[in-house]
Amino acid sequence: MKKISIRIAIGLCLGLLSSSGFAASPDSALSDEVVRLPEPFQPGDCEKEQSSSESHSSTPIANPCSLVRTGPPLELGPDLLGLGKLHPGFELPTGAVWQPALYMFGGIRTGLNVIESDDGADLTELVVRADVAFNLQLTATERIVIGFTPLHDEGLFTNYQFQPSDGEGFQDELNADIQQLWFEGDFGELFPNLQRRDDDERLEHGLDYGFSIGRQPLSFQDGMLINDTIDAVGIVRNNLQLFGASPSTRLTFLFGWNEVNRNDNDEDNDANLFGIFGETDTRRSTIEFDLVYINSQDVGDGLYAGYGTTQRFGFWNTTFRVNGSLALDEESPAVDDGVLLFAEISRAPLGTHNVIYMNAFGAIGDYTSASRGETVGGPLGRTGILFAAPGLGRFIAPLSNAGQRAVGGAVGHQWFFDHENQNLILELGVRQDFAGENSFAAGLGARFQQSIGRRWLFQTDVFLTDGDDRGTDFGMRTEFNFAF
User: Fold this and answer.
1) Which of 44, 205, 259, 322 is deepest in the core (most CB within 10 A)?
2) Dihedral sign for Cα atoms in the order 232, 237, 239, 245
């Protein structure tokens, strides 16, 4: 009976292959015809007229002439993602070959924020933010990045305030402070000569350790554990095989000594951060496991841990996270005891590029992140557009994104239109707080985005919320985003 079932299964498979045009036939032997690789493409080839027979083949491929590159405003050296021959560069005494190139990138965001609230906390302001960075690319693995935010300083933005009347007028936060300055590379690529024997073979255990040092942006556990820019040095080892796991395990050791902002988004000048961060791939999941310790005489010591898994169940994309914090000294909004549970579930409806998502959280105790920047809000910003901090002006998240004694979530649908040049998100969010008077809040939110040309993005956010402790709030944001 078992053999008959196997034969039936094989017959069905062959039948399906035959009906699809993939069945084997006596004439299916490999061809002896030599197929040559195409000649290297040159930028000037687009100016040559080609017949349809020359520009099309039986195998659909991207036509390089149809691709339009949008380069950065500053390029010194080879074009970023450009076409043509690679520059040979020059070789260092260590054996490394460098091909230097300098690129400028960033963006300018200009927004109008409006909030009408039952409690009188109305807000109307015109805000601008600029993020500018210069990337000195040395190789594919080595680069130096320096970044500035000339129109905002910490959590204060250059703006014109219409209301409230207290503070009405123009306020500038112009500055030339360096917000990012870091170098990253790989020891094996910097010193390839040290990895070779006399017979020019690579060592079995080489110097393939990545590293970064300087004032750099860091994000772990999707920003729930750490989401900040701090002065730090990190060393990473890739392709480890631990406890029988796949050889794609990565371990990172990090030490941060300055610019550490605690959970209350305020800088702790005395804090030192020590962290071990790991990630590995199994057959079904990507697993993250992190451990952080912060030492501080001013605010207090804290111990933090995070665990997350990302996988698919059928058509559904899922991510589950557990993060915990423990105050080793006095408890405060900067460091406290708590556990944060978080789940993300999403899928694309069949036959579309749209997205349906359902996100939920539960905060046991008073969870606090290890380090959070001044403009990123709380750890629950990933729940949805109603919980996310815009990072532009004094417009805060419509529903609280703090991780203290609460449950809640968001359900939303994102549609794409006009060849994905437009998208619309509609979302319902709720939050039940168990601290204080056990207040409940719910909200409806919408976001519309429209690309304009290759560098501009128009965005409008609208929300309506109602809560036990604050009444009804209505808000709207209109933003023009110029990317370069």
Assistant:
1) 259
2) negative
